[in-house]
Every structure is written in C-alpha cells, then in structure tokens.
From TrEMBL:
Lineage summary: Bacteria, Bacillati, Actinomycetota, Actinomycetes, Pseudonocardiales
Mycothiol-dependent maleylpyruvate isomerase metal-binding domain location: 12-132
Protein name: Mycothiol-dependent maleylpyruvate isomerase metal-binding domain-containing protein
Stored Pfam families: MDMPI_C, MDMPI_N
Origin superkingdom: Bacteria
Length: 250
C-alpha cells in the first residue's frame, strides 16, 4: 500500500467511522479503551489528525505538544461531530499530498518523513474505528488489503529494538522455541522470538503456536481489541497469552 493510498484511507476510514457511529450516544463507554467514552475517543481521533497535519504543514522536525489528542474531556450530550472529524481527516490528507512522502517531518523512531505519518494515521484511524464500533454497537468490517497492510505495519513497528529501552519487560518475550504463526486465507505472518531481537516475515511457517482467522480478526487480536477465543489456536496457547500480555501498541 503506497503513500497515496494511505492518504485516501485516512479520509475513507473517517467517512466509515462517522457512518458507523451515526446516532450513537457519545456517553457510551468504549470497552477497548477503559475509562473512555465514545466522545473522548472521537476527540482523540480528530485531535490526532490535526496534530499530525500541523507537523507536516510546518515541516516540524521537533515533537509538537499533543494536548489536543490527550486532553479528552468535553461535552458528550450532543451528536457525533461528523463534520469536525471529516474536516480534520481531509485537511491531513491534503497537507500530506501537498508535502509528498519524502517531506521532512517529525516522527518517532527516527523515521522523520511524512510517509510515516500518512501510514500511521491511516491505520490509527482503522483501529480506532473498531473501538468506536464496539462503543456504538456497530459491526466492524474492513477491506482485506487494508487489514493486511495494517498488520504489516504493526509487525514492523513492534520488532523495533528501541522498545527494549522504553519497556524492558518486552525482553521477557525472547526465548528458545518461541515462534508464533498468524494465518488468514489471504496472507500469513511468522514471528520469531528465539534470538536477541524480535523478527518477523510474511509467509507460512511452522511455529510453536499458530493462530488462524480472518484478516480482520487477526488485526483486532494483534491490537488486543479482541480475545483469541473464537479463533483457531493450535500448539502452545500459553505462549500466545504470554505474547499478548507483553505487547501493546496503538
């Protein structure tokens, strides 16, 4: 999935989000974001789009304060702020396209290009749309190519060795014979925890534990938005539980 498609998905996923939550109660709790209401979640999404847009528009190479996506209190008695959400998503996509994928822009882990923010906020919006669907009691569906690309991004970011510095507990995942396979009809992934860093690759492989399900189910599982119950898990289920307990992203 390329830069332009990421820009498209920022808007598309926000359009789907506003449709999914139309008529929903902003005071509804978000089961996957404990302590948050739907209104807080939507302010986080819209604030995130505006924060990223400012970084790209100003070509900031420094981290900008992100209060607009952290301070989430507000009035939850009205309607879903569909216009506000769509305005922020469209503005972000337009600013990204105007800048181009190689434009310098602050990003974590020294990525430092607008392309990173385009991809990140495309899939950030996807996963938070799943959260919003849970709160609104709506069914969450996502195109297979979007779900697969989102899993790719998650895998790529999760294996960064910088995580060991920010979260030393993550080193506990490493050990002999620790491998995990993720299989959907359309794609598969392999995670290797046996070395001194975490590694991953696309493609089928034998593993200590294998999880089979749809691409949507696998996406929600790696993001810990759903439990493994209901999916087909073969092999060492305790390793899967241990892994899920040690990963958190997005």
């Amino acid at each position: 999935m390329d830069f332009d498609r990421h820009c498209i998905e920022i808007v598309t996923q926000t359009e789907l989000l506003t449709a999914d939550t139309a008529g929903a109660d902003l005071r509804a709790p978000v089961p996957s974001c404990p302590g948050w209401t739907l209104g807080m979640l939507l302010r986080h999404i819209g604030g995130g789009h505006r924060w990223a847009e400012e970084i790209v528009r100003t070509r900031s190479l420094e981290y900008l304060p992100d209060d607009q996506l952290r301070k989430l209190d507000g009035d939850d008695t009205g309607d879903v702020p569909a216009h506000w959400l769509l305005e922020g998503a469209r503005r972000l996509a337009e600013t990204l396209r105007a800048a181009g994928p190689d434009a310098p822009a602050w990003a974590p882990f020294d990525f430092g290009r607008a392309a990173f923010l385009a991809r990140r906020f495309a899939f950030e919006t996807v996963v938070h749309r799943a959260d919003a669907c849970l709160a609104a009691g709506a069914e969450f569906t996502v195109a297979d190519d979007v779900a697969g690309a989102a899993i790719d991004e998650w895998m790529e970011l999760d294996v960064l060795p910088q995580h060991f510095e920010t979260d030393p507990r993550k080193r506990e995942l490493l050990g002999p014979a620790r491998t995990i396979a993720w299989r959907a009809p359309e794609a598969s992934w392999f995670v290797d925890l046996t070395g001194d860093v975490i590694r991953w690759r696309r493609g089928p492989a034998g593993a200590a534990v294998t999880v089979c399900g749809s691409l949507t189910d696998l996406l929600l599982l790696v993001y810990r938005r759903r439990p493994p119950e209901g999916l087909t898990v073969t092999g060492d289920a305790s390793l899967l539980g241990f892994w899920l307990d040690h990963v958190a992203f997005g």
